[in-house]
Amino acid sequence: MHKSLGSLLIILFVSTSLHSQKLNRIERKIVEKVKSLDQESISFLEKVVNINSGTLNQEGVKKVGEVFGTAFKEIGFETEWIDMPAEMNRAGHLFASVDGDKGKKLLLIGHLDTVFEENSPFQTFERFNDSMAYGPGANDMKGGDVIVLYALKALADLNLLLRANITVAFTGDEESTGKPLSISRQSLIEAGKKADIALGFETATSFENATIARRGASGWRVETKGKRAHSSGVFNENIGAGAIFEMSRILNAFYEEVRGEEYLTFNPGTLLGGTFVDYDKQTSSGEVFGKTNVVAQTAVVNGGLRFISEEQKENARAKMRAIVSQNLPQTSASIRFADSYPAMGPTAGNQAVLEVLSDVSQDLGFGPVTGYDPSRRGAADISFVADYIDGLDGLGTMGNGAHTPQETVNLKTMNALIQRAAVLIYRLSR
User: Fold this and answer.
1) Residue 359 phi/psi, 5° resolution?
2) What is the distance between the alpha carbons of residues 275 and 289, in angstroms, rounded to a whole number?
């Protein structure tokens, strides 16, 4: 078992005991406190959005971390910046914590980096009406980070964190994870092993849904080799089919024989083939030389694989390996896999935490919350701790257009989401 039965039973007990409970006097104070911080939280969001923190902009990521670190110190948290080795080309992570002895030990997860690097034309926070604003990373996920900060600030201002045990982990490379993962995610995994419940503040889909399962992500690369020769001899027993036909066979077999399982998807993202191929992994681009009258000597495909469990991932990989091994005449092929994000499975423990959130939501007048379809969510940092503790994700801000120059954040719903997060953290930390 990846989590103890005792832990699960305790969470279920918490959920049951809180069911249909209306806001008590302290929780009403929390809500009013959060409401009073509305404009301050929006101003803070604007401030951090206007600091470029594309994953490769190490200085920018650290600067955003410093801004959040100062804010966490002001509400009584101990902070630590965890540097990554220089060769990883990643800035590091911000951790903040209070080490009390009451309630559940909570791990609150966010990330400081965005997909918008320094050369992106999309750089600034801009309100375009009373409800919405454009901003690089405003929704994914600096908005979620602000929800974490201001939920905790409201609780701290009311002296409600004096005995709480809470760790905040804001990674600096979620959008392009540093390798090896054993280093870049070591601190997060260690924090997860010490906690009871993880709450992820990636973007929210609505008030009605939260994430109890996320698919994992894995990379794959197929390389085929053929016999370089004049094309007039293609298909004969001495020359064979060539590298491109072999690659076509493999991709078609993937489509026909591996496709179809629920939550399993795989996508070939780049394809190069010809006499000579040169692919640059860092820029995801390449060059190819070949002629129509020459049988292709080399072909390369780079792709991604999404899965809901390790078992599903390994089954898919086994099928892909078997297909790759069945070569056309005078060709050879190889496949390599690279792990990226593990899956966050839809466990009973995650469902129990969702029930606590749903009760909080109903008590606030926002309605019940159900689990979101995992096939519609990408990978996220919470997956790295999902094998050790129960968790919930999708507690961040709402908006549209993430990872595009039209990324928006809904400012009108942000305060209500902070209220929900604050009450949820309060109940779990009792």
Assistant:
1) -65, -45
2) 6
CATH 3.30.70.360-classified regions of the chain: 220-341
Q: Where in the chain is the domain with CATH 3.40.630.10?
A: 5-214+344-428
Task: Say if domain 5-214+344-428 classifies as CATH 3.40.630.10.
Answer: yes
For the four alpha carbons of 121, 125, 127 and 130, in that order, the dihedral sign comes to positive
Sign of CA dihedral 84, 53, 56, 383: positive
Tens digit of pLDDT for each residue in 399-419?
999 999 999 999 999 999 999
Mean pLDDT of 46-60: 98
Place of tokens 């392009």: 176
Distance between CA 354 and CA 87 in Å, rounded?
40
Going from the C-alpha of 323 to that of each of 245, 254, 318, 359, the distances in angstroms are 14, 7, 9, 49
pTM of the prediction? Answer: 0.87
- Residue with token string 């795989």: 266
User: Per the structure block, which two tokens stand in for 336?
Assistant: 């390599």
What gap in Å lies between CA 110 and CA 95, rounded to an integer? 10
Residue 77 confidence (pLDDT) above 90: yes
Which distant-in-sequence residues (6+ apart) come within 8 Å of 411 by Cβ? 42, 127, 130, 131, 132, 133
Q: Tokens 């070569």 sit at which residue?
A: 327
DSSP state of 206: -
Q: Which of 257, 256, 287 is nearest to 274 (CA)?
A: 287
Chain centre distance of CA 409: 18
What is the token pair recorded at 229?
A: 């020769």
Provide the H-helix boundaries in 96-185: 143-157, 181-184
**pLDDT, tens digit (0-9, with 9 covering 90-100), for 237-257:** 999 999 999 999 999 999 999
Q: In angstroms, what is the C-alpha Rg of the chain?
A: 24
The two tokens of residue 213 are 């399962």
Query: What is the spatial distance between Cα 60 and Cα 418, in angstroms, rounded to a whole number?
Result: 26
Side-chain-side CA neighbours of 243 within 13 Å: the count stands at 26
CATH code of the region 220-341: 3.30.70.360
Q: Quick one: tokens of 217?
A: 């992500």
Q: How confident is the model at residue 21 (pLDDT cuts 50, 70, 90)?
A: low
Report d(CA 150, CA 36) in Å as an integer: 11
